[in-house]
Specification:
The complex is a heterodimer of chains A (111) and B (111). With 111 residues, chain A is mostly beta strands. Chain A has no helices and 11 strands. Chain B has 111 residues and is an all-beta fold. In chain B, a hairpin with a 6-residue loop joins strand 9 and strand 10. The chains are: A mainly beta (111), B mainly beta (111). At the A-B interface, strand 4, strand 5, strand 9 and strand 10 of A face strand 5, strand 9 and strand 10 of B.
């Protein structure tokens, strides 16, 4: 257990629905990352925050995706109008220096 | 395109043997290099990181970095069945905080 928590752990939704995931990082870590991982691939970067500021977004993060980190604590990742291609494991990581520690992930299945 | 390539595997070794995992990267600006272990259905777990050319040892694990050849490797000595997992190589994208991952190499240690 790295101390990074994510909720929910599993989410099944129907195409077209909106979903929101939450990440609680290790309390003293000020940087938080979101990645997406599909079967047989390594994690792909989506976005990251330093405190409450979103500093970088991947081109993978379409207009349907939005992330927030109010008050620089927990973060949420929302996907609007989900598509079957959004099915993946969504991973959150918080950092000490350059070392990123991952939470358990949220597995999303879009039917 | 910043890429990280890993030997495709799968790699199978007998218990007690040395497992050798290899990774090359394309971005010469990369400064930090990581090895993650990922068990099936779980999130990646950081096992080694290296920043300087040469070797870094931690227990049964040794990471090797050669920046001139853009090559990182992980040696696992006295391999155990519990080492059976997918090993992910990750490199920080030069000038960015994000990690770029390879697809991973699946290792099986046979009793």
């Amino acid at each position: 257990d790295t101390g990074v928590s994510q909720n929910p752990r599993h989410k099944i939704t129907k195409r077209g629905q909106n979903v929101t995931f939450r990440c609680d990082p290790i309390s003293e870590h000020n940087r938080l990352y979101w990645y997406r991982q599909t079967l047989g691939q390594g994690p792909e970067f989506l976005t990251y925050f330093q405190n409450e500021a979103q500093l970088e977004k991947s081109r993978l993060l379409s207009d349907r995706f939005s992330a927030e980190r109010p008050k620089g604590s927990f973060s949420t990742l929302e996907i609007q109008r989900t598509e079957q291609g959004d099915s993946a494991m969504y991973l959150c990581a918080s950092t000490r220096g350059f070392e990123q520690f991952f939470g358990p992930g949220t597995r999303l299945t879009v039917l | 395109q910043k890429e990280v390539e890993q030997n495709s595997g799968p790699l199978s070794v007998p218990e007690g043997a040395i497992a050798s995992l290899n990774c090359t990267y394309s971005d010469r600006g990369s400064q930090s290099f990581f090895w993650y272990r990922q068990y099936s259905g779980k999130s990646p777990e950081l096992i080694m990181f290296i920043y300087s050319n040469g070797d870094k040892e931690d227990g049964r694990f040794t990471a090797q970095l050669n920046k001139a050849s853009q090559y990182v490797s992980l040696l696992i000595r006295d391999s155990q069945p519990s080492d059976s997992a997918t090993y992910l190589c990750a490199v920080n994208a030069g000038g960015s905080e994000k990690l770029v991952f390879g697809k991973g190499t699946k290792l099986t240690v046979n009793p």
